[in-house]
Amino acid sequence: MKKVLLLTTGGTIACLPTREGLAPGLNGATLAGMLPHGVWEHYQVSIRDILHLDSSNIQPEEWQVIAGHVFRSREDYDGIVITHGTDTMAYTASMLSFMLQGIRIPVVLTGSQLPMGHPLTDGLENLRTALAMAASAVPGVFLAFDRKVMLGCRGVKIRTTDFDAFESVNWPLAAVVDGKGLEIHRQSIPAVRGDCELRDRLCPKVFLIKLTPGLDPELFDMLLQMHYRGIVIEAFGAGGLHFIRRDLTAKLRAAARAGIAVVVCSQCLYEPSDFSLYEVGQRALAEGVIPGRDMTTEAAVTKLMWALGQTEDLGEVRRMFETSLAGEICAS
Ligand code: ASP
């Protein structure tokens, strides 16, 4: 029997109704006790409750706590399941992919749209899928939801209530559950390289800008004053920022001079951005921005926090963004 560690952090899956609304209240033993009896014949599950939070409260400090538990337990288990709120699960899954590069076991995040105590909960299905993936011996950080398993760094929450809440953006699914059981798509799972070290240093001073027509360039002055060290810009379409009347490119120059790393992505969810296509993108490239290409916003933000925690050398940060560390970017 495969040994699986269940780490719980809270989220809807563990929620109970309170007078102030749903709040995490169930512990791991109660969650696990709700699984159908047959499931226990397949896995030997150990349980550790590490956090009791709505995932809106999960922040960089909590990412370090979760990564530390996974790292220290990695040799004692065949796989690890982490229950987590869905709202920021994609950020946590992306960050863990960077902090735990080289992990030799499956680490699978899951949660649910309806609390486990609800008679119609999707939590049972999600937990069962996550346990199956955790027992698969396929190394990496994954997100399991609605019978789909995706790379942690490619998951995005796209629906607020539907059980089909997550999508693997710009990357095929790592596995699905169907009539054949857990079908693993090995060709879409990057090979794990190197030894696993806990690389949990990060810089939380990263700001995300969703560009809107006419956005005031003075915003950049404010970010500089606030000592932000990284900015991710979700620009328009394939890649463009305005420069007439309100010149954002001049501000990109100022940011580069101040030693701020700027990563540019698209606000379109699907397909890669290409800032070399239009003048409005080329001008940004000329100011030294780092192309985020086909990365999700969640992966771009967490990778920038992580990269700035590893090095102060912006050339090195750029090289990290040119390389796929966990399958988050299609290396050209
Ligand atoms: N607010 C909840 C959370 O992210 C939502 C969920 O888990 O589905 O913790």
Describe it.
With 332 residues, the protein is an alpha/beta fold. It has 2 domains: 187 residues, Rossmann fold, CATH 3.40.50.1170; 116 residues, Rossmann fold. The chain is built from 9 helices and 16 strands. The strands form 4 sheets. Strands 4-1-5-6-7-8-11-12 form an 8-stranded mixed sheet, with helices on both faces. Helix 3 packs parallel to helix 8. The longest helix is centred in the N-terminal third of the chain and has 14 residues. The protein is elongated, with a radius of gyration of 20 Å. The mean pLDDT is 97. Bound molecules: aspartic acid. Aspartic acid binds next to loops.
Enumerate the distinct ligands: aspartic acid
Helix and strand sequence:
EEEHEHEHEHEEEEEEEHEHEHEHH
Q: Can you say what the CATH homologous superfamily of the largest domain is? A: L-asparaginase, N-terminal domain
According to CATH, what is the class of the largest domain? Alpha Beta
Report the strand count: 16
What is the residue-averaged pLDDT?
97
Brief account:
The protein is of the alpha/beta class. The protein folds into 2 domains: 2-188, Rossmann fold; 206-321, Rossmann fold (3-Layer(aba) Sandwich), CATH 3.40.50.40. It contains 9 helices and 16 strands.
